[in-house]
Amino acid sequence: MKTNGLHALSGVNDEVMAQIHVLSDICHEADSVDIKFNYSMIANRKSGDICDFCWIHEGKLVGYAPLDRFGKKGEITAAVHPAFRRQGIFTNLFTAATEQAKLQQCTELLLVSYRDSTSGAAAVRRLGLPHKISEYSMSVQVEDVPIHASGEVTLIDAGPEDVEELSRMLAISFPESGWGAPEDLLEKMLEPDKRYYLAQISGRTIGHIGVTIGDHATYIGGVGILPEWRRMGYGRQMLAATIARQIEAGATRFELDVATENESALNIYTSCGFQQCNVYDYYIVF
Known about the structure:
The chain has 286 residues and is of the alpha+beta class. It has eight helices and 13 strands. The mean pLDDT is 93.
């Protein structure tokens, strides 16, 4: 990409991916926030889907905004190099991603902002978007993970044959999320960096959890216990068993996101060593 300005891409190559990482690191250094780029989704776009919006200056990536799809819902986040802010780059990236979301017939689109980023908060204020939810971004290094005694929960690897059951359980745990449809879930299962597990007690499935294995961290998501099995300590057991399995496979750092008002989940995560490192605010675009 040699032409200055906006480029809308269907997938990114290794060179662009490397520049995205560099831009994220620069913004982290400037703003002390971790940009919420879902590198697994960026690397596994469907062929032909335009979801990556880049702003180029003299051959370098100085602005980037991915459009991430979760079923019929979408999320946008953006990063602009500190030296190129207040030049309309964010607005151009945001507008292009929003228009593409409409073309892809998203039923809901959210913008992710960073509470500790002064420039990001100012950009959101200018847009005047209504706030929807907030999440803590949490992380833990492997040396800070406490040792928990093994409990009753057994982890079972979930495969394509478990798609319908896992989809049903995700719909119970996250009824308004819009993701976890069987066809979308099956595609995710086939990605090499994804792992899905069912939690069982005496052969009865009581919960579910997933991980995405990244270059710098293992991301934990899709955590849920069926309602009739909650508040019995099984969520903590399931999480601890998942972490232990990933440590055996070589994981050194874990990350996850959790709604700020979800106190029961927060208690589970902090008991396993996780600490807050960012606050993500989600705003409704449409």
